[in-house]
Amino acid sequence: MVKKLLFIFFIIFTTASFAPAGLKIAKLKYNGGGDWYANKTSMPNLIKFCNQQLHININAEEDFVEPGSTDIFNYPFIHLTGHGNIVFSDQETKNIRNYLIGGGFLHADDNYGLDKFFRREMKKVFPELEFIELPFNHPIYHQKFNFTNGLPKVHEHDGKPPQGFGLIYQGKLVCFYTYECDLGNGWEDQEIYNDPEAAREKALQMGANILQYAFTK
Questions:
Q1: How far apart are CA 175 and CA 214, in angstroms?
Q2: Which domain holds residue 58?
Q3: Residue 206 burial (CB count, 10 A)
């Protein structure tokens, strides 16, 4: 059933000019005390950009979904962000694993302070896998927009270069983790951080690449 639902989403998104209104993506509402709700304007802005640039038809507002809910299987793309702790229960861990194995896609963006918690919990989801840094020639960097040097840098955290890590299950990228770049902040309304428009554009373009890859992988 899961694979059938996600296959239907694939057909819809790859015939986007015929896509009906109301298709949705979601932000993960996790437990543990971290601010899962961070970057309130980021996803609506990214959705608007993708609808314009990729000619798809995603609902203008993102949904919120809990990791243990069966509703997660209604979304081909889940976004996770925040600054603090994340805790997945055993049931949530199993549900996320089934979602990702079944064709779903998780994008996690470190909003600073997320790294050790996210890595710990994803190790529970895929104990047999390790995050690997994706090479710059990976297709996720070369969808509609080309990023020959990998992720754009939006905000400084610890003076480290931006990195894109992946969990690859049976040859498929099921989770993409963006670290030290703050993509989600780059998607926010301009007046929130007053980032240069060029930086915001690059962040939105990279976000569009992630969505396009997730929908067509």
A1: 9
A2: 2-216
A3: 26
What does 59-128 look like in DSSP terms, one character per residue? -SS-EEE-TT-GGGGG-SEEEEEESS--B--HHHHHHHHHHHHTT-EEEEEE-SS-HHHHHHHHHHH-TT
Q: What's the CATH number where 126 sits?
A: 3.40.50.12140
How many CB atoms are closer than 10 A to CB 61?
11
Q: Give how many domains the chain has, as a whole number.
A: 1
**Phi-psi bin for 32: left (phi > 0), alpha (psi -120 to 50), beta?**
left
In the three-class reduction of DSSP (H, G, I as helix; E, B as strand; rest coil), residue 9 is classed as helix
pLDDT tens-digit profile, the chain (217 residues): 444 444 444 444 443 433 445 689 999 999 999 999 999 999 999 999 999 999 999 999 999 999 999 999 999 999 999 999 999 999 999 999 999 999 999 999 999 899 999 999 999 999 999 999 999 999 999 999 999 999 999 877 788 899 999 999 999 999 999 999 989 999 999 888 888 999 999 999 999 999 999 999 7
Q: Are 118 and 131 in contact (CB under 8 A)?
A: no
Give the amino acid at 148.
Answer: T
- In the three-class reduction of DSSP (H, G, I as helix; E, B as strand; rest coil), residue 165 is classed as strand
The token pair at 184 is 């989600």
